[in-house]
Known about the structure:
This protein is an alpha/beta fold. Helices cover 26% and strands 32% of the residues.
Amino acid sequence: MMTLFWFACFIVLFISSLEADDCVEFEDEIVLVIFEDELDVHHGSSRKFGPPSNISWYGSDGKTAISMDRNSRVHQHREMLWFVPAAIEDSGYYYLVERNSTHCHKQKIKIEILKKHPGRCYDVLSEYEQKLLSGPGGFIVCPHLNIFEDKNNNLPKVQWYKKEDEGHYTCLISYGYMGKHYNITRSIHLRIIGREKKKMPVILTPENRTMEVELGSQLLLDCNFTAQKNDLQYWTWNGSFAHKEPNITWSELSVPNLNDMNIVTRVSRLVILKVESRHYLYPFLCWVTNEAGIATTYIALRPPVSDSRMYLIGGFISLALVVTFSMFLYKIFKVEIVLLYRDSCHPYFLKKALDGKVYDAYILYPKYFEEGSSYISDIFVFKILPEVLENQCGYNLFIYGRDDLVGEDAIMVINENIRKSRRLIIVLTGEHSSYNWLGNTSEQQIAMYNALVQDGIKIILIELEKIKNYGNMPESIKYLKQKHGVIQWKGDFMEEVPSAKTKFWRCIRYHMPAQRQQSSFTREPSVLDSVLNSKKK
């Protein structure tokens, strides 16, 4: 049986050698250069006849057929000549014979195997020349590697090498064949040539946008742009060319520009025959590129929003508007809103909070015995403040000079009663002498210590006169003004019974603690008058 097989092979080779002699030999000679100890494959030039035709390879005599045995180092596999690997003695002429039922074409090819030199990754004889236009951008290609693509059209990993400051580039891949791995090297000599000045491409339409598309529908996407000769345009989706995706086609139409024949308006049309759910995941990008730069725009697809989602979105928007409007109203009318809430809920506040405090506020005011502003501050502190906050609003105040007892230790009284108070009201006047008082008295120092360091008591600053410059004030007062602000008094000091409903007193009540039980205690006018009279003397 084996004898019959080898006899048949001999007959085929013999007939092939006879048929090779009948072919028309063309004079064109192709020189191919490869390195020794590397795998390489050659398929000759393009077909002359087209399928159906047969391809055969012959040795240097033009009659001896190349072996079809894949275990042979030099063999023919399918229509290509394989060197696995190449050796120096393989250099010489090879013949590519293509024949069909009526014609036969014979092509002479010279293959030269080069010996590698240590320390050099390229040889001038093996280089492929490639050209790039000067300027930004551009790329070179590792040539003749499409033979080594796998079934998914993917190439093996390409490693690039370049000798510094020279125009020589080398690419290297490792290819597995018949259970072994071989290197394949390509060398490139790069030349930079001048170019005409290019204009940046301009995309006219569409602008970046998102559009709603029904699932399963057909969609046309047009990209209109102005371009010059050799400008490159393409669509991408999910990082790859869109027209290579299933159910997507691409076409292009050019319209010449009568004013400038070098510029044309082109329309690139992408046709999605059937929109799929995966098309919603990534946008479709239109790219136009040349040496001057890149222009791009995108169209993102999304499914139509259902009615329920529209209602839900509308509800959230309405809620956001209501909340925003409410916050706006609260910011404008927060004083009135807080006071209204306190007055409305007054019946539910039966007693003071159990915080250990006795007084609602401690009054800190300038103390000196001069005429002018001191008398105004005394009227405000000893008459107006108690009349409104105590008699009308029910607050309990501690005023040093009114509520302390004769003979008590001043520092102990001040410290104890400040700690028993929920607020600290500081009364400021425009007199420079009051600035010194604020910074030097033990009362002010104790109050600032309790407010800023120990208890964190809340502060209310009141200006009886407009103070334009706080530069001479103590640092603690400047800090409190910056943090809490100041309330300016604009009332009449001579008014017999001030009203708690004015804007000034509403602001004071807003900063005061919530009054939970209306006070029935009213201080005797005689006590207030005696204090004022003692100040006047």
